[in-house]
Amino acid sequence: MTDTPTLAADFYAFQDLLTPVEQAAALRIREFMEREVRPVADDHWERAEFPHHLIPGIAATGVIGTAWPESRRFENSALFRGWAAVEIARVDASFATFVGVTSGLAMGAIGVGGSPEQRAEWLPRMGRGEVIGAFGLTEPSAGSDTARGLRTTATRRGDTWTLDGAKRWIGNATFADLTVIWAKDTADDRVKGFIVRKDAPGFKAEKIERKQSLRGVQNADITLTGVEVPESDRLQRIDSFKDLAGVLGPTRVGVAWEAMGIAVGAYEAAVRYAAEREQFGRPIASFQLVQQKLADSLADVTAGLAVCVRVSQMEDAGTRRDEHAALAKAFCTGRMRAVVARCREVLGGNGIQLDHGVARFFADAEAVYSYEGTYDMNTLIVGRAITGVQAFV
């Protein structure tokens, strides 16, 4: 094993399940996040800006595209990929979302649905951080109802497809080099995926302003007006919503891990604050009610990490099903929400100020709770698996 220090929040030492190579990689990520991202995270969050200058640095750690042989720099497991999300999100959830979108969603779409030629063209450059990706699925009128409510269309004429429609809440889209757009084929009404370059005529991405969560993420409203895409840029192995679901399962697990990273970050900040803040002549860490809040938060973090570890082991074994990912996402984001609220209470009034380390996590948790399938939708996926009865409508 390496001498990678264990996070204090990793009470049951789940990190020890990583291989020595993976532990060394986790340490590189942690060092980068502490050295480069933490000092600027609050400022960029407050200004709703993304630290573009840090992209080469995070790419150099090898964390982008770890799932694909074309971009993978070392052998790694789904367990490591989840742990990497914790290491990033415990410092900055916006930065973790950026990595998740380009590495998990955009690269995942190309990795799962792309031809060998498409994979060879895009995945190596994306893994090096030279090409940034976005993932255009959600629409203004189709969030949870994407399977039936997708209105963006794709019409084929010869070797060219024409895309028309709109997308909303698309992370990275204001600056991404490519966006994977999902649309329904007007000929057969089946879902297909397309690699759309940022300079394509008719493609427009406008930043969504006035957000109060994940402010560093550059979400966009996208309009597609007669955007022409060659057949060579259609994802060749995607021909249905079921195929698309093959992309979303692993990323849903990734969001569960990210939620635990947010919970870890809030917990760590609350522990530090409790040791430093004095009331009634002594540190508040000496008060029983504060200790109870910290112990309850650690229990929630530990339970969430245990779920994440097991579902990632199932991913590696090829036994993970959609309902496993759904339960992990629902449970972990629910526990995250409880932890950030409890940790904000530990800080009292200071808990709403960026300077004390919890307010950003408290706000960011709300977006993570909702994206990649809301809590309600994920529980219905689990409920269907339990009962055999679909209750979505």
Automatic annotation (TrEMBL):
Organism: Glycomyces paridis
InterPro entries registered for this protein in UniProt: ACX4-like (IPR045008), Acyl-CoA_DH_CS (IPR006089), Acyl-CoA_Oxase/DH_mid-dom (IPR006091), Acyl-CoA_Oxase/DH_mid-dom_sf (IPR046373), AcylCo_DH-like_C (IPR036250), AcylCo_DH/oxidase_C (IPR009075), AcylCoA_DH/ox_N (IPR013786), AcylCoA_DH/ox_N_sf (IPR037069)
Domain Acyl-CoA dehydrogenase/oxidase C-terminal: 247-386
GO biological process: fatty acid beta-oxidation
Coiled coil segments of this chain: none
Protein name, entry field: Acyl-CoA dehydrogenase
Keywords: FAD, Flavoprotein, Oxidoreductase
The organism's place on the tree of life at top rank: Bacteria
Family indicated by similarity: Belongs to the acyl-CoA dehydrogenase family.
All residue ranges annotated as the Acyl-CoA oxidase/dehydrogenase middle domain in the record: 134-226
Segments passing through the bilayer: none
Co-factor(s): FAD
Pfam families on file: Acyl-CoA_dh_1, Acyl-CoA_dh_M, Acyl-CoA_dh_N
PROSITE patterns (UniProt xref): ACYL_COA_DH_2
Acyl-CoA dehydrogenase/oxidase N-terminal domain sequence ranges: 22-130
GO MF annotations, alphabetized: acyl-CoA dehydrogenase activity; flavin adenine dinucleotide binding
